[in-house]
Amino acid sequence: MQHLRLGVNIDHVATIRNARGGIHPDPLRAAKIAEEAGADGITAHLREDRRHIADYDIKLLSENLTIPLNFEMAATEEMLEIALAHKPHAACLVPEKREERTTEGGLDVLGGQNSLQKYVSELKNSDIRVSLFVEPDPRQLEAAARLGADIVELHVGPYCDAETPEERDQHFKRILAAAKAAEEFNLECHAGHGLTYETVEPVAAIPSIVELNIGHFLIGEAIFVGLDTSIKEMRRRMDIGRAKAVEQSV
Ligand code: PXP
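A: This is the predicted complex of the input protein with pyridoxine-5'-phosphate.
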């Protein structure tokens, strides 16, 4: 079974910094604490409106991290230029709307294939691994494979936000089916959005998912217990989930 990586999304450290302007709290310092706490990668989303992460954060992260940077970006010329300048380990293409509070859904790879192809190709030509953030729908995965993406990140927000166990179970089944489809299409499978201590274990137990990207909950929890502790506790719960997958497969 492959190791399950934890990518820590530090966007909301920048959200707090930007609430007052200035330099505190520093996203790079948070990334370094995450590294020390056992994160396998750092994720940062440079949004068009720069509401949290700023251009200089991406520069500093690129220069100072010893673990991989996953650069979340919209498929725009501006972001492509920034990605090609910094050459992060991976770029995750996400849909972006100015009026949304956070990323609200997966990319429509199926419907937007022609416009995405250029971004996938140019990033890959620059040795940047390309991830597409998609709904857990096998048709979207098939389209992602056709475009030549290396990775799909499954949007698990609706599973995390489900209000009843039945609803959560339905969303979980979709995630399971999509993770299986990722294997069939030879896509590396990641998952993210909305994960918490309560929701992470079942997702961690899916063997073909090899990376979870988690931000908001970890940064929020860090207010109470510190970032090092919130990350270590998430890691512990991911390991518990992963161990269940091993038990199921023997
Ligand atoms: N993955 C993607 C593609 C995202 O857009 C986000 C949110 O920025 C995350 C993961 C992390 O989600 P959350 O902050 O809810 O943990």
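The chain is about 50% helix and 15% strand. Residues 5-249 form a domain with the TIM Barrel fold (CATH 3.20.20.70).
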